[in-house]
């Protein structure tokens, strides 16, 4: 299971269809090892069709969304920045690993830079 963290920017999420559960993690280590993280669940949100909520960085940066309805869920994420070329991090709480990545979801190339 992979969790995603992005650089600070406020996010607003609205559930259009189905139900989703948002698990928000808190980092409990000092962050000194860029490839390792100790995480704990800080809160869980359950959202149904028509619900919306904000994820506020840096407190809510590490999070995981899963569908909990019988059918598919659809949510709309309003971001305060373009995340296509922003360096982000994938967290695996069970393994304690962290991996830098860029989503690359853009029709324009990202500038070359190192994470």
Architecture overview:
With 115 residues, the chain is mainly beta. It has strands at residues 3-5, 11-17, 19-27, 39-48, 52-55, 62-67, 74-79, 88-92, 97-101. It has a single domain, classed as Jelly Rolls. The protein has no helices and nine strands. The strands form three sheets. It has a three-stranded antiparallel beta sheet, with no helix packed on it. It starts with a strand and ends in a 14-residue tail after the last strand.
Percent of residues in beta strands: over 45%
CATH fold label: Jelly Rolls
Radius of gyration: 15 Å
Total individual domains? 1
CATH superfamily: Jelly Rolls
Report the count of strand segments.
9
Helicity, as a percent range: under 10%
What's the CATH first level?
Mainly Beta
- Structural class by SSE content: mainly beta
Helix-strand pattern, N to C? Answer: EEEEEEEEE
Major sheet description: 3 strands, antiparallel
Shape: globular
Strand order of the largest sheet: 1-8-9
Keywords:
single chain, 115 residues, mainly beta, Jelly Rolls, 3-stranded antiparallel beta sheet, 9 strands, disordered N terminus
